[in-house]
Write a structure and sequence with these properties.
There is one protein chain. By secondary structure, this protein is α/β, with parallel strands linked by helices. It has two domains: 118 residues, no CATH class; 223 residues, Spore Coat Polysaccharide Biosynthesis Protein SpsA, Chain A. The protein has a seven-stranded mixed beta sheet, with helices on both faces. Helix 3 links the parallel strand 1 and strand 2. Helix 2 packs across helix 7 and helix 2 crosses helix 11.
Length: 376
């Protein structure tokens, strides 16, 4: 009887139930996958490797983090640093390291007011300069978590593997913004690594990514998205990776840590730039990526209305609590896997806020010109 008297609330209950089922699917199928994944045993590899780092005005970061890359415990590797039109003392820092490290190679791009370019051009110069088939990418503001980083990443290559996706987190700091940046980074990793493990790779992060040099040239480099300000990592993976030619590596020793945005304005600009690449994903991936946050909004929206009207509230509250327990459990398991302490208590709050934050950022990226030749 109560159902017939409240058709609107009944419709909301159906929306609530369906959005709950979508959430359960994503959490148990995709997001749980990295948490329970066991890396297969693999023999140590000694294939020659080229690490590529593009740097523009990164003097301090190069001084602080480049030695950790150059001193990796790996038998045969070079580090190609593309010094892209730097106006600070990056050249001098690299010159100092060039005397100390025989495995360092430098490619300088001289500033030309008649020719502006984005990071993909610098990346292309680095790939051209590299002499080895296996290319491992990271950024100038990144530091490997251990001296085994390179060996862990390379160990996942075999004759069938063209891509290896790693985990690139951020150095932890104090403050609310730090918590959100690290939460955002980790949940994106849960998504792209989880989907990759289920045979649907759609992106990687340039802070910790590897692929074959021959593949890059066979696929004509960055192709149709070369003009975009970002996408040197995610769009290349989205265009060329599949469930059969890709592996993942995210054991703690293989992580990298980066310097996060120092303030809200810089984070806003970074997120906007990265969100502009999403519209160029495959349709399948765009649908998969939008379905979860949309269902999440419907879930919370319908819950608030149903519970405020006390409509079948024991059932509604029970479903909400079940989803919360599942969410927190999966997040806690992944937090341990990605070595991201201190985020669990923030997860329920950010879970509500993040769809709206990303919607605002995405709308802003569509309204404003992000600058096709901006490097960062």
């Amino acid at each position: 009887m109560i159902l017939r008297e409240h058709p609107f609330l009944l419709a909301l209950l159906i929306v609530f139930g369906l959005s709950f089922l979508v959430q359960v699917f994503y959490y148990l199928y995709y997001y749980l996958a990295p948490a329970i994944f066991k890396h297969p045993d693999s023999l140590p590899k000694n294939d020659p490797v080229s690490v590529i780092i593009c740097a523009r005005n990164e003097e301090e970061n190069l001084r602080n983090f480049l030695p950790a890359v150059l001193e990796q415990d790996y038998p045969d590797f070079e580090v190609v640093v593309v010094n892209d039109c730097s106006e600070d003392d990056s050249y001098e820092v690299l010159g100092e390291y060039l005397k100390k490290y025989p495995n360092l190679k430098i490619s300088n791009i001289i500033k030309d007011p008649k020719f502006t370019h984005n990071k993909k051009f610098a990346q292309f110069i680095g790939i051209k300069a590299a002499k080895n088939e296996i290319l491992v990418f990271t950024d100038a503001d990144c530091k490997p978590e251990s001296e085994k980083w390179l060996s862990r990443i390379v160990s996942r290559f075999d004759s069938k593997i063209d891509f290896v996706l790693g985990y690139g987190g951020f150095f932890s700091k104090k403050g609310f913004l730090d918590k959100y940046i690290r939460y955002d980074c980790m949940t994106i990793a849960m998504q792209y690594l989880g989907m990759a493990l289920k045979g649907m790779p759609y992106m990687g992060v340039g802070r910790n990514l590897a692929y074959r040099r021959s593949l890059f040239f066979d696929k004509k480099g960055f192709g149709t998205h070369a003009h975009l300000p970002s996408g040197d990592d995610d769009l290349f993976v989205n265009s060329n990776a599949s469930g059969s030619n890709l592996a993942v590596e995210f054991r703690k020793e293989s992580h990298t840590r980066s310097v996060e945005a120092s303030d809200l304005s810089k984070f806003y600009k970074q997120k906007k730039r990265h969100l502009t690449t999403a519209i160029h994903y495959k349709l399948r991936d765009k649908v998969a990526l939008i379905s979860e946050p949309v269902s999440r909004v419907f879930f919370y929206f319908s819950f608030v209305i149903l519970i405020s009207n006390l409509f079948l509230w024991p059932l509604v509250l029970g479903v909400f609590v079940a989803r919360l327990i599942g969410q927190v459990t999966v997040f806690a398991l992944n937090q341990k896997k990605f070595n991201e302490p201190g985020l669990l208590q923030w997860a329920p709050i950010f879970d509500i806020l993040s769809p709206f934050i990303n919607a605002v950022l995405y709308a802003g990226s569509l309204r404003e010109d992000t600058g096709k030749n901006k490097w960062k």
